[in-house]
């Protein structure tokens, strides 16, 4: 799943946790209008990983956006879940870095596990 993450590991770094989008992304107008191609591309090209040194998130296939924050430079990982999100195990994560950096990602599979793994490494 994480070719980008694996190809960009630094010396002594190892992947501790990986996740992806939840299957709920296939139940949207965007999915319907693109014949389910857009969410399929998102699911298989976007990568969310926590290593022993940083959080690495890559989104996009052709135009790429990457977020790479050292664990020591992250103030908090916030999780927002609706009732449906709690029932089915998906939610939104917002990573807040030192200096006000704020990155939000929606419909992530097991967001509480993502936050827990982050907290275990800090």
Explain what this protein looks like in three dimensions.
The protein is α+β, with helices and mostly antiparallel strands. It has a single domain, classed as PH-domain like (Roll). 30% of the residues lie in helices and 37% in strands. It has five helices and seven strands; from the N terminus they run αβααββββαββα. It has a four-stranded antiparallel β-sheet with strand order 1-2-3-4. A three-stranded antiparallel β-sheet has the order 5-6-7. Strand 3 and strand 4 form a beta hairpin. The longest helix has 11 residues. The radius of gyration is 14 Å and the shape is globular. The mean pLDDT is 95.
What structural keywords apply?
122 residues; alpha+beta; PH-domain like; 4-stranded antiparallel beta sheet; 3-stranded antiparallel beta sheet; 5 helices; 37% strand
Can you describe this structure in just a few lines?
The protein has helices at residues 3-7, 29-33, 37-45, 83-88, 111-121; strands spanning 15-19, 47-51, 54-59, 65-70, 74-80, 90-97, 102-109.
How are the secondary structure elements laid out?
Blueprint: H1 3-7, E1 15-19, H2 29-33, H3 37-45, E2 47-51, E3 54-59, E4 65-70, E5 74-80, H4 83-88, E6 90-97, E7 102-109, H5 111-121
């Amino acid at each position: 799943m994480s070719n980008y993450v694996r190809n960009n590991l630094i010396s002594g770094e190892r992947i501790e946790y990986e996740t992806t989008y939840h299957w709920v992304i296939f139940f949207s107008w965007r999915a319907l209008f693109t014949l389910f191609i857009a969410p399929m591309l998102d699911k298989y090209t976007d990568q969310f990983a926590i290593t022993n040194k940083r959080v690495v998130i890559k989104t996009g296939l052709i135009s790429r956006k990457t977020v790479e924050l050292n664990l020591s430079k992250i103030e908090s990982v916030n999780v927002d879940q609706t009732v449906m999100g709690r029932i089915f195990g998906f939610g939104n994560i917002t990573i807040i870095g030192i200096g006000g950096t704020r990155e939000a990602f929606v419909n992530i599979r097991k967001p509480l596990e993502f936050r827990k793994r982050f907290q275990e490494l800090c």
